[in-house]
Amino acid sequence: MAAMTSAYDLRTAAGWFRLIAFAEAVSWVGLLLGMYFKYLGSPQTEIGVKIFGPVHGAVFVAFVAAALAVGYTVRWRALTWLLALLASIVPLGSVMFLIWADRTGRMGSRPVSDGIAGRGTPVPETT
User: Fold this and answer.
1) Is the residue at 109 inside a domain?
2) Which of 3, 85, 113, 126 could form a disulfide with 105 if both were Cys (CB 3.0 to 4.6 A apart)?
3) Residue 4 and residue 70: Cα distance in Å, rounded?
4) Cα–Cα separations (whole angstroms), residue 63 to 37, 67, 77, 108
5) Considering just the CA atoms, what is the radius of gyration of the chain in Å?
6) Residue 124 lies in a domain
7) Is 4 helix (H, G, I), strand (E, B) or coil?
């Protein structure tokens, strides 16, 4: 079987991180729309916040966990860790961080089981 070359290969920590980063951005958009309709929309309704609030909370936690997994797997330096955690707070920051991390070579492609379980040689972060 040919190896997958997709950036969203879920056999890698980076693939999971990319998927969760986009889910986090989508949940942010949903929450922001929900807040618009709660406070400014016509008619005003809380349904968007009631739906997207918990969804965004769960995806936020998943984003932080995925960032920890990727950072551990590819051995991020302290500044990269800090930027990833800050990106989780800023609306759509997860996608901005992901684009930056991809362009600067801070994302690895080792299978999740190799990186988390400690098997294999870690991919060092480039400067």
Assistant:
1) no
2) 126
3) 18
4) 26, 6, 18, 16
5) 17
6) no
7) coil
Whether 39 is covered by a domain: the verdict is: yes
Q: How many domains does the chain have?
A: 1
88 domain-assigned: yes
Dihedral angle over CA of 74, 23, 94, 13, nearest 10: 0
Model confidence pLDDT, tens digit, residues 75-98 = 999 999 999 999 989 989 999 999
In contact, 80 and 103? CB cutoff 8 Å = no
Supply the DSSP string of the chain, one letter for each residue. Answer: -PPP--TT-TTBHHHHHHHHHHHHHHHHHHHHHHHHHHHTSSS--SHHHHHHHHHHHHHHHHHHHHHHHHHHHHT--HHHHHHHHHHTTSTTHHHHHHHHHHHTT-----BHHHHHHT-S---PPP-
Range of the domain at 75: 13-104
Single out the residue of 35, 104, 34 nearest to residue 74, CA to CA: 104
User: Which residue do the tokens 């998927």 mark?
Assistant: 19
What backbone phi and psi angles, to 5 degrees, belong to 66?
Answer: -65, -40
Q: Which two tokens stand for residue 17?
A: 């991180």
